[in-house]
């Protein structure tokens, strides 16, 4: 299919039905751990909304009333967790992101899943200061919605190196405040070894100080989704990246919680 795909999500702990609004492999960031081949700089193309709805209805029919779970999903994770805007680029760059949100809500309601299945946006947050995007996120809040907002580093150097983003940190945090005020929002943070070296303590301290500042300012972030690289990157830096041990991630998660936010680990 062009827009809709299923995945067993380690972070979700079940089946996630993905909605890919960037089938052109275009994104406005280039994260070094990105698994999209032939990634290009740009935004999502025009979407065939009729086809999107047909694909979403068809897959949900297979998942909820067909034998998809028995055929394709290991025991223990045979549950539908969410419909997630997550694809081959930043979904909020799509000119029809808001319409896609509305369609997803209508389809979930038609299947009797509204309220029991989450509607998730996995985003780098770069477009959340745009009114149409912010309005769509506010509508997501009424659809059992949740935003996973990327923040891998609280330093300008870290954001440039990991995400190839030159946006000032203050602007990124302002967009985070918009998201968190409109819809339940989690930070999603990917940490990894680079050239065999764990993240340096200066970066980690800056991250923890950033978490404390968010808490002190009352930004209503729900917590941190902490993970590491799991599948090979398709970017030029791929050979330099290695996953961090689960013990390391859990130790840093404890430091995040001491700074004031809950942390969930996906190793």
TrEMBL record:
Q: Tell me which residues make up the Radical SAM core domain.
A: 22-191
- Does the keyword field hold Iron-sulfur? yes
Please name the Gene3D superfamilies in this protein's record: Aldolase class I
Q: Which InterPro entries match?
A: Aldolase_TIM, rSAM, rSAM_sf
> Which cofactors are named for this entry?
[4Fe-4S] cluster
**Iron listed as a keyword:** yes
Instruction: List, in alphabetical order, the Gene Ontology terms for molecular function in this entry.
Output: 4 iron, 4 sulfur cluster binding; catalytic activity; metal ion binding
Q: Report keywords, A-Z.
A: 4Fe-4S, Iron, Iron-sulfur, Metal-binding, S-adenosyl-L-methionine
Top-rank taxon, per record: Bacteria
Classification via PANTHER family: ARYLSULFATASE REGULATORY PROTEIN, FEMO COFACTOR BIOSYNTHESIS PROTEIN NIFB-RELATED
This chain belongs to the protein called: Radical SAM protein
């Amino acid at each position: 299919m062009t827009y809709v795909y299923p995945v067993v999500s380690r972070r979700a702990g079940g089946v996630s039905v993905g909605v890919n609004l960037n089938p052109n492999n275009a994104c406005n960031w280039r994260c070094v751990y990105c698994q999209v081949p032939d990634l290009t700089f740009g935004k999502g193309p025009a979407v065939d909304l009729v086809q999107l709805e047909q694909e979403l209805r068809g897959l949900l029919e297979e998942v909820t009333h067909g034998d998809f779970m028995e055929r394709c999903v290991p025991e223990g994770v045979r549950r539908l967790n969410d419909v997630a805007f997550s694809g081959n680029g930043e979904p909020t760059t799509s000119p029809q992101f808001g319409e896609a949100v509305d369609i997803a809500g209508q389809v979930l309601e038609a299947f009797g899943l509204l309220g029991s299945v989450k509607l998730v946006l996995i985003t780098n947050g770069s477009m959340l200061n745009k009114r149409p995007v912010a309005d769509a996120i506010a509508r997501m809040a009424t659809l059992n919605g949740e935003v996973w907002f990327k923040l891998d580093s609280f330093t300008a150097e870290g954001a440039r190196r990991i995400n190839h983003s030159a946006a000032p940190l203050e602007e990124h945090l302002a967009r985070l405040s918009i998201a968190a005020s409109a819809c339940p929002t989690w930070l999603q943070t990917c940490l990894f070894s680079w050239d065999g070296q764990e993240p340096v303590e200066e970066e980690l301290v800056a991250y923890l100080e950033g978490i404390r500042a968010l808490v002190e300012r009352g930004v209503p972030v729900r917590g941190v989704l902490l993970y590491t690289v799991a599948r090979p990157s398709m970017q030029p830096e791929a050979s330099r990246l290695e996953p961090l041990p689960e013990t390391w991630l859990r130790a840093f998660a404890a430091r995040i919680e001491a700074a004031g936010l809950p942390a969930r680990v996906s190793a």
